Amino acid sequence: MTTDAAVLEVTDLRVRLGGVDVVDGVSFALAAGERLGLIGESGSGKSLTALAVLGLLPAGARVTGSVRLQGRELLGGSDRELSRLRGRDLAMIFQEPSTALNPLMRVGRQISEPLRLHRGYSRQAAARAAVELATAVGLPDPQRLVRSYPHELSGGQRQRVCIAAALACRPALLLADEPTTALDVTVQAEILALLGRLVAEAGTALLFITHDLAVVAAVTRRLAVLRRGRVVETGATDDVLRAPADPHTRALLAAARLTQWNLPAAGSAAARTSP
Amino acid sequence: MTAVREQADGGATGAEPLFEATGLVRSYRLARTSPFGPPGVRHAVRDVTLRLADGAALGIVGESGSGKSTLVRLLLGLDRPDAGTVRYRGRPVVAGRPRALRWFRREVQVVFQDPAASLDPRMTVGAAVAEPLACLGVPGDHDERVDEVLRAVDLDPDVRGRYPHEFSGGQRQRIAIARALAPRPRVLVGDEPVSALDVSVRAQILDLLGQLAERHRLGLVLVSHDLGVVARLCDQIAVMRGGTLVEQGATADVLSRPAHPYARALLAAVPRLPPP
Ligand SMILES: Nc1ncnc2c1ncn2[C@@H]1O[C@H](COP(=O)(O)OP(=O)(O)OP(=O)(O)O)[C@@H](O)[C@H]1O
Ligand SMILES: Nc1ncnc2c1ncn2[C@@H]1O[C@H](COP(=O)(O)OP(=O)(O)OP(=O)(O)O)[C@@H](O)[C@H]1O
Ligand SMILES: [Mg+2]
Ligand SMILES: [Mg+2]
């Protein structure tokens, strides 16, 4: 998979924490406009893989291997170099939005911060952009909402603030870690469509981490399954979900089908209005 | 897991509802958009009335920002309504001094939407799970109980000495669930309690809650955007939008014949797995 077109190339990535290789030799590549899903059981190393790419691993983590963004090696790079890229060329939607937001800063400023830092937006231009981005992620009453602090928003609204901030600079690489877990399905559908447009229009490469297999089926074309820090299965999303080769992937799918809400019998109102 | 509520059972009286919320209203004042404009008001919850029978399970679904978490905070006495009342087994639940609601906290435990809100980062997992046992003066061997609930949520009891930040998102959420179940509550209120869990752990936790509900009449109030969770655990469902309950009823009825257009849109938007 070594092509010059690769936006992201991760090779033999290892993250050691507390004496354990919590990421244990992970390799994958992502081309411009490509959407790769990363699934796997809780604690399998999905978030740490994304954080390693971003250079934001917890203190005490030891990392080896290679992470190349548009050909440039990121591992071992200086903090200054990395923070210049973060928010501009690569952005992440974090799994827990409330920990990603600054409680003392109005959300509008947090949304437009990347534009001021990396694109030289004036205060006024950034304020206008914040309202536009808030509107794009479906936040209600955006003019007023941008003036709120994070604690004044609902969980799903906070998550959408993080999404807006990550999309602000139309990054070459977007790492989305459970980006819609706090959203109801109607808002989720809008956000997924928005991410789809970003990928199509800006050629953003998308790494999409989720435990929702129906969502991963809708969003991604390729899939990698992690277990205990290793990739145990990769392939076209449809193929993996239809006929998983790895027994653990099979178990995951069986559980998903079991807990999925099933349409009531045909003929009822719900069955008629469903796609 | 073993009996979750044996000591909370005393004094239960038959038909009286556990929770009774009447005419709840909560609004927030908002920043002005201009120095001369009026301050705005956001009606987070407007005129919500609901009842939960003993041992019943209520699912609350609805749009992001529709007021679900606000309603939950009002039910728990963590916030004061502008109007309306909450009663638990006939006694008023009024936000105020924490000591005054101790009787209530012994019976009603909560898992918040954001695990960070349930867990103190400076407290080890063992201490966090044991804390409600100590605070509420629950009798019995606390160490043993901590191990038991950790195992019930599929965590190795050996993790007791570690801190919350050393865990993955789904592991943290399970720690919060273990902490809430530790004192054997009579009612568990969960705000998206399983949203961060992978499907197999989720199935296991749903089984656990289902068993507790069935065998020990654990009451449930679950906010969830996952209709699979609600369909599986909750006999009652309430659909919330713009601060009001737009539809309420038996889960099977509402899911098979949703009356309100928003409820229909919600059902139609559920993403589906491709068939095997
Ligand atoms: N700071 C840390 N110190 C020690 N171990 C850690 C630390 N952070 C995470 N881990 C461990 O690393 C493993 C992988 O964590 P990671 O957060 O990547 O999981 P995940 O796949 O994202 O899971 P989830 O679906 O629950 O979010 C977990 O077993 C976790 O306990
Ligand atoms: N402290 C506050 N100050 C101002 N507005 C608030 C405050 N807390 C909540 N709100 C607003 O009240 C409304 C209801 O919020 P709530 O958190 O109850 O929604 P929710 O249904 O739980 O949404 P989600 O599914 O996104 O978590 C939202 O519009 C939110 O912005
Ligand atoms: Mg994670
Ligand atoms: Mg909420």
From TrEMBL, chain A:
<dbReference type="GO" id="GO:0016887">
    <property type="term" value="F:ATP hydrolysis activity"/>
</dbReference>
<keyword id="KW-1003">Cell membrane</keyword>
<comment type="similarity">
    <text>Belongs to the ABC transporter superfamily.</text>
</comment>
<protein>
    <submittedName>
        <fullName>ABC-type dipeptide/oligopeptide/nickel transport system, ATPase component</fullName>
    </submittedName>
</protein>
<dbReference type="InterPro" id="IPR017871">
    <property type="entry name" value="ABC_transporter-like_CS"/>
</dbReference>
<dbReference type="InterPro" id="IPR027417">
    <property type="entry name" value="P-loop_NTPase"/>
</dbReference>
<feature type="domain" description="ABC transporter">
    <location>
        <begin position="8"/>
        <end position="253"/>
    </location>
</feature>
<dbReference type="Pfam" id="PF00005">
    <property type="entry name" value="ABC_tran"/>
</dbReference>
<dbReference type="GO" id="GO:0005524">
    <property type="term" value="F:ATP binding"/>
</dbReference>
<dbReference type="InterPro" id="IPR003439">
    <property type="entry name" value="ABC_transporter-like_ATP-bd"/>
</dbReference>
<dbReference type="GO" id="GO:0005886">
    <property type="term" value="C:plasma membrane"/>
</dbReference>
<keyword id="KW-0067">ATP-binding</keyword>
<keyword id="KW-0813">Transport</keyword>
<dbReference type="InterPro" id="IPR003593">
    <property type="entry name" value="AAA+_ATPase"/>
</dbReference>
<keyword id="KW-0547">Nucleotide-binding</keyword>
<keyword id="KW-0472">Membrane</keyword>
<dbReference type="InterPro" id="IPR050388">
    <property type="entry name" value="ABC_Ni/Peptide_Import"/>
</dbReference>
Automatic annotation (TrEMBL), chain B:
<comment type="similarity">
    <text>Belongs to the ABC transporter superfamily.</text>
</comment>
<dbReference type="InterPro" id="IPR013563">
    <property type="entry name" value="Oligopep_ABC_C"/>
</dbReference>
<dbReference type="Pfam" id="PF00005">
    <property type="entry name" value="ABC_tran"/>
</dbReference>
<dbReference type="InterPro" id="IPR027417">
    <property type="entry name" value="P-loop_NTPase"/>
</dbReference>
<dbReference type="InterPro" id="IPR017871">
    <property type="entry name" value="ABC_transporter-like_CS"/>
</dbReference>
<dbReference type="GO" id="GO:0055085">
    <property type="term" value="P:transmembrane transport"/>
</dbReference>
<keyword id="KW-0547">Nucleotide-binding</keyword>
<dbReference type="GO" id="GO:0016887">
    <property type="term" value="F:ATP hydrolysis activity"/>
</dbReference>
<dbReference type="InterPro" id="IPR050319">
    <property type="entry name" value="ABC_transp_ATP-bind"/>
</dbReference>
<feature type="domain" description="ABC transporter">
    <location>
        <begin position="25"/>
        <end position="267"/>
    </location>
</feature>
<keyword id="KW-0067">ATP-binding</keyword>
<keyword id="KW-0813">Transport</keyword>
<dbReference type="InterPro" id="IPR003439">
    <property type="entry name" value="ABC_transporter-like_ATP-bd"/>
</dbReference>
<dbReference type="Pfam" id="PF08352">
    <property type="entry name" value="oligo_HPY"/>
</dbReference>
<dbReference type="GO" id="GO:0015833">
    <property type="term" value="P:peptide transport"/>
</dbReference>
<dbReference type="GO" id="GO:0005524">
    <property type="term" value="F:ATP binding"/>
</dbReference>
<protein>
    <submittedName>
        <fullName>ABC transporter/Oligopeptide/dipeptide transporter, C-terminal region</fullName>
    </submittedName>
</protein>
<dbReference type="InterPro" id="IPR003593">
    <property type="entry name" value="AAA+_ATPase"/>
</dbReference>
